[in-house]
UniProtKB/TrEMBL annotation:
Keywords of this entry: FAD, Flavoprotein, Oxidoreductase
Ranges for domain FAD-binding FR-type: 51-152
Any one GO MF annotation of this record: oxidoreductase activity
Taxonomic source organism: Calocera viscosa (strain TUFC12733)
PANTHER family: NADH-CYTOCHROME B5 REDUCTASE, NADH-CYTOCHROME B5 REDUCTASE-LIKE
Family: Belongs to the flavoprotein pyridine nucleotide cytochrome reductase family.
Binding site for FAD: 99-101, 127-128
Transmembrane region(s): none
Domain of life: Eukaryota
Protein name: FAD-binding FR-type domain-containing protein
Cofactor(s) needed by this chain: FAD
PROSITE patterns hit by this protein: FAD_FR
Length: 342
């Protein structure tokens, strides 16, 4: 008898659960990887915000004068700043104190994310001392933008700015906004800057005075600048900024300087003509015209608190601007004049 046929070998079918095991394991590993990346990734920089702090990178730090710092900060995803006057708040992490600083200009630099601050090292100033010790590549905590005062273009005839020390920063911001970053400068308003420093060595650095000197040279009928120092300390009565030579007045800003700013004296030939007319008999004198209306003048005062008090009066107890006093108060602001304290 022939032997019985050997049984044919067949593969044992695997259960359905075993077939889905590699897919489940792969999905689990992928999910865990994504979860680890999400929770363990470094946090993305938070955008600049007026209510909360974000890190800003120091890209430049110099000391143009013995007691000041000029810093450039790269801000985290900043939105365009508002119109002047706006500030950036900086926090000292050691004592959790914040102080506002006025950027000299709007956003600039690579990517349009940098601002420049001119900071005075104040005695007992925790934030300024903290900033003076920061180095390029380190970060500081900032928030912004917030306004110091609201700039309103009311068709002023004159805007007269009084500043001392680093108080020139808001005015540099305003002039840069109106003249240097605008294709059309103001057509009606005349701007006058009276700035005082203790000595020539403490005058604003070329990064600040240079653009203002060029502005005065280009539009002398729209912008004028006068510099004052408490003492020349044996130095010359001129201050060189690039090719510009700026005259220094060895005194503090006086009442006569304010009067000249708001009502400049006529050219010499017109003063001589006025003296001749005064000698003529009444019937030979030309008919007197009506007295022109008083100019609309905006006075802006920015600087150390003692300077603001001397020229515009003290602030109120709640740190608001308070009533107008000081030298400007004695001049009588009256209708058409406005005084603001920065």
């Amino acid at each position: 008898m022939p032997p019985p046929p050997s049984p044919t070998a067949h593969a044992v079918p695997s259960p359905p659960k075993l077939r889905r095991l590699p897919l489940a394991l792969g999905t689990t590993v992928l999910g865990l990887s994504l979860a680890s990346w999400y929770f363990l990734r470094p946090p993305s920089p938070k955008a600049l915000d007026p209510a909360s702090y974000s890190p800003a990178l120091i890209t430049s730090h110099t000391h143009p004068t013995p007691r000041t710092s000029l810093l450039k900060l790269r801000l985290p995803s900043p939105s365009p700043p508002p119109e002047p006057f706006y500030v950036l708040w900086v926090k000292s992490p050691q004592v959790q104190i914040e102080r506002p600083y006025t950027p000299l200009r709007g956003l600039e630099g690579e990517g349009g994310e940098e601002v420049e601050l001119w900071v005075r090292h104040e005695r007992g100033g925790e934030v300024s001392r903290y900033l003076s010790g920061r180095k390029v590549g380190e970060e500081v905590e900032v928030r912004g933008w917030t306004r110091s005062i609201q700039w309103q273009d009311k068709d002023w005839d004159e805007v007269i700015m009084l500043s001392g020390g680093t108080g020139i920063a808001p005015f540099h911001q305003l002039l840069h906004h109106l003249f240097l970053s605008s294709p059309v400068p103001p057509q009606k308003t005349r701007f006058t800057l009276l700035h005082g420093s203790r000595s020539p060595s403490e005058l604003p650095p070329p990064e600040i005075l240079g653009p203002l000197a060029a502005l005065q040279q280009r539009w002398p009928e729209r912008f004028r600048m006068r510099l004052f120092v408490d003492e020349l300390a044996g130095g010359p009565a001129v201050h060189s900024v690039g090719d510009e030579r700026l005259l220094l007045n060895e005194r503090r800003i006086q009442l006569d300087d304010l009067l000249r700013a708001v009502d400049p004296p006529p050219p010499p030939r017109f003063r001589f003509l006025g003296r001749v007319m005064a000698l003529l008999p009444p019937f030979m004198s030309p008919r007197q015209e009506e007295k022109p209306k008083r100019n609309k003048v905006l006075w802006l005062v920015s600087g150390p608190e003692e300077m603001v008090e001397a020229y515009a009066g003290p602030r109120a107890r709640d740190l608001s601007e308070g009533e107008v006093g000081g030298v400007l108060g004695s001049m009588g602001t009256g209708k058409g004049w406005e005084v603001r304290k920065l």
